[in-house]
Amino acid sequence: MKLIASMSSPFVRKVRIVLAEKKIDYETVLENVWAADTGIGRYNPLGQVPALQLDDGEVIYDSRVICEFLDTLTPVGKLIPPTGRERAAVRCAEALADGVLNATVLTRLETVLREPAQYNADWVARQRLKVSEGVAGLARGLGEKPWYAQNHLTLADVALGCALGYLDFRQPDFDWRTAHPNLARHFAKLSQRQSFIDTVPPAA
């Protein structure tokens, strides 16, 4: 398998952590989606990473789809419950964490890539509100439990860790640790796992 990736993408990081936790071998193909000559369209018509090219050439894209597929390949380190409310709880937490990521990415694009004359402060404020409310929702969901949704690591924890890590990476001025000490403790625990250590994004 080949993972089409950008090492700064939090969605790629989520897939890389899942691959590591599942102990699945793969090859990384780096792709700069912002380059004029990018080849990402060969893998994903939406021009986004991650994409996963299987050994027969078929390509799967969208991090949620890829992670769900990977979890079916081996019973090692099962990350998504098979059915019912337990499964829904994990997928809902992943959706919330991904929403935080999306709003963070959109904020960065608006503040870094947008021409100053086109900058929309109200729109950025709306995205920042999504981030703060989303993080608060994750804190409520975690509570004082040792893991987000089960008695072991699940995709909910992976997605949460990627969201918080990306906030540190791209919005270091957002002090989520003071407001949500339970998230701070959980993120510190996750950050000690080798899968998280090996996937820290490169310095900007």
TrEMBL record:
It comes from the Bacteria. Residues 1-78 form the GST N-terminal domain. Residues 83-204 form the GST C-terminal domain. The keyword Transferase applies. Keywords: Transferase. One of its GO terms (cellular component) is cytoplasm. The keyword Transcription regulation does not apply. GO terms for molecular function: transferase activity. This is Glutathione S-transferase. The lineage of its organism: Bacteria, Pseudomonadati, Pseudomonadota, Betaproteobacteria, Burkholderiales.
